[in-house]
Amino acid sequence: ESAAETEDSCYFLFDDFLYVYDKETRQSALLCSDPTCPHTYDSDCQALVSSASACYLEYYNGYLYTLSVAQEMESEVQKETLNLYRISLDGTKKDFVAKLADSVKIGGSEYNCYNVYTAVIHRGYLYYMYGYGFGEDESSYYVNKSHVLYRISLDNPGEPEAICAMNYGGVNF
Asked: Fewer CB within 10 Å: C terminus or N terminus of the chain?
């Protein structure tokens, strides 16, 4: 799971829900302000980051950033999208920032899920690299645009910019 730290709190993801730990009181709680909320995957719980899959959490410039996977079936083909979201520190606002990748399930691949190898925010950009649906040999290493270092602006997101492709075998599984 992932964690992020501010001056007075630590935030962490656990089972796709966002929690906050107050450093002064040494108490942790779900980041949901609704006392009647059941805090379940099928509710509108503010603490639920994603009902599909959430990974990565980083604090930057007054917000938390997280990656989330959305799944859909289209003409019997499973498609997954890796998305970037910005969350307010009180959890009341969760905004879509950008689509980072689209991937299609590859028959026979045991890697048909997003493996986010690295994601880091630096000077207003998210730098990230993932694998999805790739195979064991050089001819399938870059399937679904896997194993490429990308960057995208947090303030002015457009299409992700490919920085460089990793050499075959350059990312440990």
From this structure: C
Q: Which residues pair with 74 in a beta bridge?
A: 77
pTM, two decimals, is 0.88
Q: How far apart are the two ends of the chain, measured CA to CA in Å?
A: 18
Of 136, 132, 135, the residue nearest 146 (C-alpha) = 132
Residue-wise DSSP of 52-80 = S-EEEEEEETTEEEEEEEEEEEETTEEEE
Tokens of 102: 């689209």
User: From CA 145, how far away is CA 19, in angstroms rounded?
Assistant: 32
Burial class (CB in 10 A: 0-12, 13-18, 19+), 32: buried
Residue 21 contacts residue 66 (beta carbons within 8 Å): no
Residues 40-76 pLDDT 10s: 988 889 998 875 666 789 999 999 999 988 888 878 8
Query: 47 and 66 in contact (C-beta within 8 Å)?
Result: no
Residue with tokens 């730290």: 5
DSSP state of 110: S
Token readout for 98 is 């950008």
